[in-house]
Write a structure and sequence with these properties.
Blueprint lengths: L1 H28 L3 H8 L3 H7 L14 H11 L3 H4 L11
Helix pairs in contact: 2-3, 2-4
Organism: Bifidobacterium moukalabense DSM 27321
Protein name: XRE family transcriptional regulator
Pfam families: HTH_3
Length: 93
């Protein structure tokens, strides 16, 4: 059971770092949330949730591969630049 708790905590921390990366990169580009959302083909609310706004602690950001590709394209970065390292070990989940 302790392994599952640690894996969940690692995942939550990882997703928070993803949210911070997304916010930082968007701000560096000088883009609004609305612009990124529109250009990535999602609603502003969906995008805000990816940056951590309005998401609950129980449901951290967990974008699909399609969403990651869209965001990376809009922000002109690689997916690797969006995703924090190191990746959490989720095998215990």
């Amino acid at each position: 059971m302790a392994e599952r708790i640690n894996a969940d905590m690692d995942w939550t921390q990882y997703t928070r770092e993803f949210e911070m990366n997304l916010r930082r990169i968007r701000a560096q580009r000088g883009y609004s949330q609305e612009r990124v959302a529109y250009d990535a083909g999602m609603s502003r609310l969906q995008y805000q949730r990816l940056e951590g706004g309005g998401s609950s602690k129980d449901r951290p950001a967990n974008p699909t591969a399609k969403t990651l590709i869209a965001l990376a394209t809009v922000l002109d970065v690689s997916i690797d630049e969006l995703l924090p390292t190191p990746w959490p070990d989720l095998r215990a989940r």
